[in-house]
Amino acid sequence: MKSLLSPQPSLPTHVTEPRTNLSRSKVTSSLRFDRDRWIGRKKCGLTLSAVLDPATIDQFGISESEFVNPAVSTSYRSSKLPKPNQTVLDAQARVCTGPTQTKPLNEDQAFKVFDTILRSARGELKDEEQVSKAQLGAFFAAMTIRANAFPEATQWSEGEKHAVSNFWPHLVRALPSDVIFIADPEGSIMGVGSSIGPQYVGNGTSDMRLVGALREVLAGGHLGYEEVQGVLRDVLPFKFEDDKCSSGVSETLLSAFLIGQRMNRETDRELKAYCLAFDDQLGLAPVADVRSLTHYGEPYDGNTRFFRSTLFVAAVRSCYGESSLLHGVEWMPPKGGITEEQMLKFMGANTRLTPLQAKELLEDEELGFAYISQREACPSLYSLIGLREHIKKRPPLATTEKVQQFVKARGREAIVTGFYHEGYEEPLLMLMKRRGVHSGLVVKGEEGALSMTTKFRSANASKGLPVNYCSGFRSLSMDSAFELDGVSRQNFKTEVNAKDFGFEPTDTPRTDRSD
């Protein structure tokens, strides 16, 4: 324990008295996060360099790669990650999405994208201008799924068809076989007959299961629980070296698989497979001897527009004896926004705790609070960050990583997470129930995070679930959270109105503009 905490106390002791007895000074103390003590003493250059002016940085010879600006989330992106080709990435933002959200490319856009891909395949583009293997896999998977399974409005535009007819005869001679398979798995889409797609089985035994699964995904189909688990077992761990996964799986095929499953809108059994696939790799989670534990699963890619309050809410709740565990990453695409880990590092906290170390902090009556980075808890999954940047859109893992139990509790457990896209609230609650927790809550906060707004819903607001929509369940039994028939579990849905709690309606301050 001494290796984690210095002897001077800073957070209040375990609080059991009524809330009115919790003094303002105690709350202020808990939010200050004493840098010499809270979650381990960690003296590092991050806090110091964050307040240095440019002249001082030059004076001491600090390189740009060593400087992290706490106000700019993109400065936390690792310089070791290769950047994707921006032209193709912009196109992926339009087409690597769902059947109603996809925006087909016009002729000018399509010609520019296919010309870029052809020049890259011929070796005419260098360094960051090159189109990566992951980008090729994601883009052509999107094109194939749109042609095979999307409604007419989001299938290929006339401009895209024209671009394909012009460029594919050249691309089929320049692209590797795995990309040709993804683009035309049955040899019937691109208009130029090729036997490569129908005959493709992969470049080794590690590819075979993935290729078989991809044929179903590229046709707009779904996989069973065991099929998804089998694919994930084959590709674990996700560690890329020299453009090849350490398990031997093609990066192109893997990116096509991940984005394809998201575009087809994952079924409950597919999401459950992703959620539980890493449990065996993690091993048994340590069990904290606490009466209650709340797991906070914010979107890992952070906020870019609105304040992210969960870190501070969780810290205050820990003052009331409600142990809180947060998890996430320092930086994650596609948004690359402000995360809890960035805020903690800026305050000098140790963000390299193992689950066992986090368990000790949760059990400490003076703390009851911990943060676990995916980097420490699941390194193989963390190593996918570069791939995720190149596929542009969120893969199924972006949903399931929010519902993790890196530490369990002897007492009652709850999971709270945010969501944005309508239709994911029920699958998230399903995963929470599968985790066996006593209660679960999903919140449509601002930017899909947990932070709610105090402003009224505009009459011109878009259709769908409003911000501040909440859905969840609570177990009525103290003995077990697992229920076969749901009789002992209470479900609820509500829309939180700030005025009902005494808050006057106000616009939420924006972090991306000064007004």
Automatic annotation (TrEMBL):
GO terms for molecular function: glycosyltransferase activity; GMP synthase activity. It comes from the Eukaryota. Gene3D superfamilies: Nucleoside phosphorylase/phosphoribosyltransferase catalytic domain. Keywords: Glycosyltransferase, Transferase. Residues 1-23 are annotated as: Disordered. GO terms for cellular component: cytosol. This is Anthranilate phosphoribosyltransferase. It comes from Populus deltoides.
